[in-house]
Each structure stands twice: as structure tokens, then as C-alpha cells.
């Protein structure tokens, strides 16, 4: 695989159902050389834990100034076009991105390569196959681990190094179709609708919100968003 887009996401957590993307980072590689980059911070609709803030170094002021998820996802889709993708434990990022893309009526069907799987097959002597371990093995200094763009760049670097170290292993470096089917969205439950309506009335929110047309995920996000910005209802 000579031409591809290496990408990485930072999220509020590990759950596809509850968590959200807060940063997208990607590098475009053509014939082994970087030809473009994409990076953005997403303004979240839910509170981000101190653990994630400390892990990533993305502070709350940066998040406050972030762009919308729709703008970030559509920008990435335009940047990556139909290129195959590369990632370290790529399915984690692929699932989040595919689900986000689907929420805005976009497809994200790609072939790809997982550097974690490649390292497990080719670098069995290493203590573990974490991205930081691969970077150390190839004497590459990742300037900002757990930031999306820097991790995407590091992933591309170690991929190119593995290709050089194992030139005879051509098949393992070839992209294959990534398989993940986004679950069909279910309509918001009666309990969600009632609670959301109560929150809207309690906080006197003037924003027009069509509760009846929401999915369970959208209702949950909206509830989290209102509580995050306005607080819970006090008895």
C-alpha cells in the first residue's frame, strides 16, 4: 500500500453508543511520502472527563472553540476521499468515524490496514505492540502522544518502517475491506421524550427541538447537552 490516509481519533471514551469524537487527525501519504494533513478539534455536546483532558492535553478552552462534528467529519471525508485508511487498532477509529458519517447521511466504506495486527505478526519479539513501543523500536519521537494528528503521523512512520524492514512480506501490507455495519437508529423512547420535554420547560430553553423526530442516540445526546450547559432539574 503506497497511497493511503493514516488517521486517528480522540474521543470522550470507548463507547460507540455514549461517547463522542473530540479530535480528528490524518496524514495523506503518496508513494511513501506525506502529501497532506488534516486536523481539527470537535466541540463536544457532553462533558469531557478530567481523565481524557489529562490524557490528551486537549483542554476545555480548546474544546469550547472546536468546530461542529458535522463540519469535522465532512472535512475529513473530503480530505480522505476514496483512499484506503491506515490506523493503529484501526477498527476503533473506523467504527466511530463510520457511525458519525452515517449520522450525517454519508458513507464511509473503506479498505484499510491495521498497524497493530501487522506488528503482532512481524514484531513478536517486542514486549507489546503499543504505538509508543513501535515508535521506540524505530527510534521515532512522537511529539504529542494521544493527540490525533501526531498519532496518525506516528502510525504512518512505523508503517513505512515496517515495510522497509520486511520487504518480502508484501501481502500483509495490502489493504483489505474493513467490516462494520452501523446499527439502525431506534426512535427515542417515551421516557426520553418526557424527560427531555421536562428539561426544556424547566430551563426555559427557546431553541426549537423536535423531540418526536429524534432517535434514542440523538435524544440521549441532547439530554446530556442540556444538563452539561444548564444543569439538572432541582427538586
UniProtKB/TrEMBL annotation:
Give the keywords, sorted.
Exonuclease, Hydrolase, Nuclease
Molecular function (GO) terms for this protein are: exonuclease activity
Q: Does the keyword Nuclease apply?
A: yes
Q: Tell me which InterPro entries the record gives.
A: DnaQ, Ribonucl_H, RNaseH-like_sf, RNaseH_sf
Name of one Pfam family that matches: RNase_T
Taking every annotated instance into account, which residue ranges of this chain make up the domain Exonuclease?
3-168
CDD domains per UniProt: DEDDh (cd06127)
- Under which name does UniProt file this protein? 3'-5' exonuclease
Q: Provide the taxonomic classification.
A: Bacteria, Bacillati, Bacillota, Clostridia, Lachnospirales
